[in-house]
Amino acid sequence: MRTDTSPAIYRKDYTPPSYWVRTVEMGFDLDPSATRVATRMTLARNPASAEQAIVLHGEELELVQIRLNGKNLAKRDYKLVDGLLRIPTKAEEITLEIETLIRPDKNTSLMGLYVSNGNFFTQCEAEGFRKITYFPDRPDVMAQYTVMLRGDKKKYPVLLSNGNLIEQGDLGDGRHYALWEDPFKKPSYLFALVAGQLVCQEQTEKLKSGREALLQVWVEEGNLDKTQHAMDSLVNSIHWDEERYGLELDLDRFMIVAVGDFNMGAMENKGLNIFNTKFVLANPRIATDTDYANIEAVVGHEYFHNWTGNRVTCRDWFQLSLKEGLTVFRDQEFSADMIGTDSGRAVKRIDDVRVLRQAQFPEDAGPMAHPVRPDSFVEISNFYTVTIYEKGAEVVRMYQTLLGRDGFCKGMDLYFERHDGRAVECDDFRAAMMDANGRDLTQFERWYSQAGTPRVKVTTSYDADKQTYDITLAQSCPPTPGQAKKQPFHIPVAIGLLDGKGRDMPLSLKGHSDQPTTLVLELTATQQTFHFTNVTEQPVPSLLRNFSAPVVLDYDYSDADLAFLMAHDSDAFNRWEAGQRLATRRLLALTEAAQQADSPLSVDVALSASLRASLNDVALDPAFRETVLTLPAETVIAEQMEVIDPQAIHTARRFLRLSLAKDLRQDFSRVYAANQTDGPYSPDAASSGKRALKNLALSYLAELDDADAHTLAQAQYDSANNMTDRMAALAALANSQAPGRAAALAKFYSDFEQEPLVIDKWFSLQAMARTTDVAAVQTLMKHPAFSIKNPNRARSLIFSFCNGNPSRFHAADGSGYAFWAEQVIALDAINPQVAARLARSLDRWRKYAPALQEKMRAALQQVADTAKLSKDTREVVGKSLAAN
Prior knowledge:
This protein is an alpha+beta fold and 884 residues long. Among the domains are: 9-196, tricorn interacting facor f3 domain (Immunoglobulin-like, Sandwich); 312-553, Orthogonal Bundle (Neutral Protease, domain 2), CATH 1.10.390; 753-884, Zincin-like fold (Alpha Horseshoe), CATH 1.25.50.
């Protein structure tokens, strides 16, 4: 393997900047092939720094001119080495002017200023601003920005930047200008610029204080009919943040802009949020129920960043979860509140935990494992991970679980009171929670500093004579890279006890005067026993209610206990969890049998009976019934195995689904008929839930792959008045031997070839179809609609195959791995961020059987040996190969 890796950056080595930047004035003369950027900044020496120079970052820039306090600097007056510009000086107050030339049309990395479909866009988080001008591009340097944009009026009639529009007008030479001012200090990663031919939907919204704000959603011509849901989501976000946390929009306007070429989902630039079109554009013709929900969540997430990320930002990038984990928690709570019902909140919670288990738990167990607050990195872009976001959100949720909603809000109030307008650390957030509530949360810091998923082993003991019940909790955490031994975490474990009729029992625990039916036990030692009294009969414990901590729970439930909880638990999450545990046991047994050539596969009736009961329980919301009947994913089953066997897992899961389809055929048919949504399409929770259950029933019936199933799927496809039903029917056909399969795929493409987001779905569906192999993906890559340069298109086909079709990707001949290596190398030359994310597909190669391991290692080595490999991809591949 090549050894010319970039050096790691360590949190312990943080040093304050040599100069603070007070104001930034920027002028842009926009031209795709040669944009001139003139920057004037005022700086003040930082007395906390011993550095005797101004230190600026820059990448891929042509430096035209530097002026220091009005004096032109010659090359001998500064040093420019490896993207670091150092200007020696001892001056206390400085005015620094820099002119740079950049080439946006050549910028395929989509970081900094780039061109997409003839329009200008920026992406500056984490370190994209240094591709625009030389600057102390670090989050703790916050300044006020004024931005002048100049460009051709016909080509770029819309000129946008952060904050408030101060002035606009013609320049008299076919060009025009717009002057923007952001009254709030911000770090450079929140800078944004948009210019081009765009149209907007706008409305004025009255805020809680009585002030009015202009809201705008900007899109390309032809997409204006797809913006209403994004606008509604923005309005709902604004009012939710006012009501829940007392936080008001602080600008005169708030803008969302959608672009089809974007590395991320969206970006929270102050007042000018730039979004991937995937999370803005929606109407019944092109968007599924999931798309509508995702748009609401992402719009909420980026808006909530206005306070948790923008007004209070990160001191350094090691504190990334300070803004991202907190804001994911806030968007999760927002989405749950928008659903409004208890069962809807439970389904939202289940969906969030599914993501955690399918993506973050494996990350915690692999070579890229890192704490919520990492100690080091080579490339910060590689740390925009599910650990930072989703596990970070669970850490924030635990504060609320320990302190209660009111206590959490008190902590938030103190956090803003102390730190508004500042760049701070994760410890500052924890301190605000402690001080506002008078709680000692010192040990809670370990959730930030220790990687890995803790395991909580539970044992219980009942004394019928004394009517006492003991619950013993023991915690451990496996080693992770760089952390062999772990100290005990502070773990909130919410529990309940059920009596023989399935009713919640009052809980009497020493030290608690009340008798709640759910109690949060605080596990802080390696092992603790909790002694309950007045327990009148042997209970069935309901453990880790609402998934009160991101841990693996180990308790020896019997199958009967799980069926009982599945039928009776008042905690909806644990009711679902009981069914998942029961199904996981069956799938693991079936996987083991599938690995033995002479071992027949069979399923006992207990699981089928439990699922039938839930499927037919009309007292349960359809959305909840759909979650119960959805089997654990192949990736979840893989995590339960010492050695992963993708083929056996796939065989086992398909067999179980087919068995359930046969056993419950009449039930699924009845549920399918009962959950039709007649009339115009609506993405509301009730209608979405009915469609989810109906389409789950269709997917099970499609497993039968007979004429009746083909006819049902084709009829739904032909009559569908919304994308949710159309995609569900197309998926059923694509995974079948139906004679109309090819025709349906062709018709779908023909009907939607002018809708890029829908064609992404078309590619993705085929990439994950059970019949799709490497050859089929390579054929699809030759389709005229495919472009590897567009991140959405690359993700829809290449990523969907490598990450969403495990049985085909892990083909015994290694063809999937050879294909992966080709694509990582190709993407790295275009867009290192996207390449590095694809590189993660093989980071757990050592968990597989030796025959597969060897082929994976060879593919990783092929990438590692590539001469011109970005530090983004090299870090991932290097850590993967080095892991034991």
